[in-house]
Amino acid sequence: MDAKHGCYNKSMASTFKVKHNGRIQWCIKWKQEGKWHFVYDDNKSRVQDKQLARIAAIGTQQIERSKPRKQTINKKTNPTLNMLFDEHVEKSDYKYSTYKTNINAWQALRDNIGCKPIKTITKEDIQTAFNKLNAAPYRALLRWKLINMCMNDAIKKGLIKQATNIERPKVVNRTRIMDNTYMDDYTRIIRGLLTWLENDTNQYHEWYAIVKMMNLGMRIGEVLGLTEESINRANQTLVINKQLTSQGRLIAGTKGRNGSFRKRIIPLPDTYYKALTNQIIANKKQGLTCAITYQPDGIHDAIEHPIFINKNTNHAIRYNTFYKYWIKIQQAYHKEIEGDELTETNYIKPHTNRHITATILAEEQVPITMAQAILGHMDSDMTEYYTHITASMMKPIGEKYENAMNNTLMTNFVNEVIKAKTV
């Protein structure tokens, strides 16, 4: 079944993907009491739940939850790679961006080895196709993964006993190499950068709180998605349960597929807690107020208030604005404090801050389970395993991390440079 054409069951409800509110979403359309009704959501399971809630609200229980036709492949058949791929992507609950990326990557294979039956395809066929395409390493790796996905599905269905695939394409991760090579320098620079930004007279002081939160090992979407409601003032912790999208919307959950409502709680050391509360106070003084409606559980609406607001638009700071200023901040710091220019080797990518945090936690001999809970390096199946890590247990970790970041030598160095320039 092609998702864009929808699917019908005996309840006469149609489920399909459509462009809505400027993005592709799942939609369910059904007729009830002589009228057509529509519900939309980014997640297929949630849109079905919304349909049930709407039916109940209308008052008559005449329509059952819509069920797509099952796209099962008979074990006796010999399906092509295209058939296995199409079935997998339509049944998987991918984000639309991931869905589109996989579709585009497979397009080059569709009229090539995609037409070959799963039982008769050979390694030579796959190698010939890859040699002909001569794609970039990352593109080749993605296609290799998609073929592997089809092979694994075929094994689960009992169509084949062993996967047929070429060796995994080798990809050089330059970011990882740079992080491993220059991590000591990155850690020193971040310590100095935070001291420099903390100064009230700094032209980029308004970005101090954002950089401070990045230094807690948070992802950029999680930082920009922080709201006043994210702060638990009772035990001075931060609840990470949402992120900002590139369209400026808040969505529930952190990194992962749609439908993931995972969250984590991290301690807020005193200086970090103060930086956030000062940012909220500064917003109120400048008359900056922003409210965003989102669905923390995928069904019910909630209104929350972003902490990091763009003064020009009075909306949450977007990714493009953040990246533009992140480069400017580092350029200014290197020119004023380090006495050099921003280069490929001393530029710190936003995500590198997570690696810096992990490195410092490891140096301070923080247990790996605690570090994973703070950084969010866990999947939804492991969440329950970490529920025994309480806020009171995390607080000493936060204090230890804060002390490690407050490097006296680097702080004194930055302050001396600033003092010399003002004399």
From TrEMBL:
GO MF terms, alphabetically ordered: DNA binding
This protein's record includes keyword Repeat: no
Highest taxon listed in the record's lineage: Bacteria
PROSITE patterns in alphabetical order: TYR_RECOMBINASE (PS51898)
Assigned keywords, A-Z: DNA recombination, DNA-binding
Keyword flag DNA-binding: yes
PANTHER family: INTEGRASE_RECOMBINASE PROTEIN MJ0367-RELATED, PHAGE INTEGRASE-RELATED
Family of the protein in this entry: Belongs to the 'phage' integrase family.
Protein name as annotated: Integrase
Organism: Bifidobacterium apri
